[in-house]
Design goal:
The chain is mostly beta strands and 100 residues long. 9% of the residues lie in helices and 26% in strands.
């Protein structure tokens, strides 16, 4: 197996709706990302389809966006265990991911 080229995507635009436009400065790949209510990726330009593309939120500091930071903590009393969760809880216990 051969190693493909590595390209780094950068966040080019953040729409007020929350849609992100990412672009690869190396090959011109462009796509839109929508996170809510359902994740959706729309490719605008394919660019180099053989290259491995990556990118992340660390690139946000290079752009001129005011993105608020939210911190949310979940308290134990907020967790509601229903019968629908029992198969998952039983499985987690069986494989050692949850305590008895």
């Amino acid at each position: 197996m051969y190693a493909s080229e590595q390209h780094t995507m950068i966040l080019d635009m953040l729409d007020p709706s929350g849609t992100e436009q990412w672009v690869c400065p190396t090959c011109g790949r462009r796509f839109l990302l929508e996170w809510s209510p359902v994740y959706q990726q729309t490719v605008l330009e394919h660019g180099d389809t053989q290259a491995t593309h990556s990118g992340g939120a660390s690139d946000l500091h290079t752009r001129q966006f005011d993105i608020p930071q939210y911190e949310q903590t979940l308290q134990d009393e907020e967790i509601v265990f229903t019968d629908d969760l029992l198969p998952w809880l039983n499985w987690m216990k069986a494989v050692g991911l949850a305590s008895e």
